[in-house]
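User: Can you help me understand a structure? I only have the sequence.
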Amino acid sequence: MESESITELMAILILQLGIILFAVRLFGNLAKKVRVPQVLGELLAGIIIGPYALGGIHLPGFLHGIFPMGSGSLSVSIELYAFATVASIILLFVSGLETNIKLFIRYSLAGGIISTSGVIASFVAGDLIGMLLFKTSFMDPRCLFLGLLIASNSLGIVARLLSDQKKMDSPEGVTILAASLFDDVLTIVALSVVLGIIAIIIGDSQSGEGLNLSVILAIAGKVFGIWLGCVALGLIFSKKLANFLKLFKGTIDFSILAFGIALVLAGLFEKQGLAMIIGAYIAGLSLSKTDIAPVIHERIKGLYEFFVPIFFAVMGMMVNFRDIISPHVLLFGAIYAAAAIIAKTIGCGGSSMFLGFNIKGALRISMGMAPRGEMTLILAGIGLAMGILSQELFAVLVLMILITTLVVPPLLNASLKLPGTGTRKPVKGDDTESMTWQFPSTEIADLVINTIFDDLRKEGFYVQVMNFDKGLCQARKDDIVLSITEKENSITIETSKTDIQFVKTELYEVILKLHEAIRKLKESSDPKSMKKDLLSSGGRSRQDLLAQISLECTSVNLSGNTKEEIIIELVDMLAAQGKLLDRDIVLKDVFEREKTMSTGMSHGIALPHGKTDGVDDLKVAIGIKKEGVEFESLDGEISKLFIMVVSPKKTTGPHVQFLAAVSALLSNKNIREEVINATSSEQLVKILQTKIPPGK
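Assistant: Let's start by predicting it. Here is the structure, written out as tokens:
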């Protein structure tokens, strides 16, 4: 009977996880489309499918709903909350891993002062609001937690905004990032201090003793001492720890074991009465300056993408949407959010004025420190699980996060766009240097950068692709760090001045190697002879790829009389339907491809195509010119059928697969003639999408 109960429990858990995954992806993508942080979409998904909304509806086989109410102070099952707990450990481990120690130390004075003043101002403001609301003392556990919850900011949201505005390396940007790192540290330490104070308050209420300043200072000293000691040990032995992990050879193996260290430390810290997220953060921080840090980050990305959205969804499930829309929660949430923004403005903005920033700089810094997000939700989840926060207070907190996350980013963007510097004096450069190389085309730049990566890996570097779409990469070995950016046909490498000679030598060797490889390639192969086989029979023609063909982007009566006019007409056909981001860029890239070798095939077919930044996904335009046009085809005949394919340069997609599918279809003589003789766009599309030869 017990085993059946466990089986039923696991079946429900698996079903819940599956539903959550679909919900967070759907709402997360919707959030990105409306240009709000993805975390808000994931949080909203949890509210909608949670026990207070759709999840609590009675269904056949689910008497209390698919997401029934949990026991105690939790609104979800213990099993689901366990997944959220693991997710919070992953989140803090990655946060520690992403911490730039050199940046932290370099800007420790300004960042530390700004962060400390902002945390103190926010904590006092939140606690005072709690005192007014509950008519109680400053040391009431609820007031302490309300103060704690608005102390931190959202590093993820701010980093994304600074990156979009290209202000990551500005004085304000660097200071915001450094202060945000301090915020995480101070908030984590403050959490343990608050939990220690609350434990003593609860004990004192039973024993009748009081809480004095010396006890509070002793708790703070103990917590900070343990945190600082563990961080120091972690950083001192970080290389030895990395070397130990490398003994497991495979990058996947040592990355998983690195996360295992985070789990062990998290468990040990929780057993000692400290929050487990502190242990997870220290584990990541200890490995952050090692050469395997970017690899670990990349390898556990799948775990992060799986677990962390579940965390935000579970947090959303704990919110009773009826509480959020109640007048007093709306009022309290608005006041709480206003206090959160004002406190950071006074604390962070005010202190930055004494650190060389002017009013513009202070405004940018205060806005950069104002959004709340991941850390706030983690702390709130702890408070709710411990019974310190009620469901209504949790709803107030979520409302505050929603308001600050929606209101602050536009204000930060506006402040960053203000003309003029944010510092009183010109800022001196640092010890880094960057070099940029221009190449004739994006394809050559791609070839060069891929060869660089291959060479660096052979040199013992760990290469991490940080953002494929934006061409951002990082390579690390010991204390050598290379930041590599590929943009269109240029490559920029930034590193310390002492390592710039290594970069120059590396690029010289790569170019030399490619020159020799290209010379041998020219001697051993003939593209024209290979091109003759492209319309040979026997290929695969996939119907799902041919479904990309749309009626509105086809014509059986092209008017162009030259190759150039036909290509322009096909591009304009796509532009008229709003399918292009930039018509001129598409034209330029398609003509550039034609210069390499004509796309005129044989049997009256031409396949003009190109990779371009002028589109966001694969686009197809098809046209027929029954009189034919000279297209430099292989067999010397004029071309009558023109199929244009354009797709993004930096996004994966079936560009070549589509060309191969069309070539395979048109290798059939009967189908080819039917297509060329089509009298309407409807007939043309029908033939291409339905006339799949047997066995294709």
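Now, to help you interpret it: The radius of gyration is 30 Å. The longest strand covers residues 619-629. Let me know which part you'd like to focus on.
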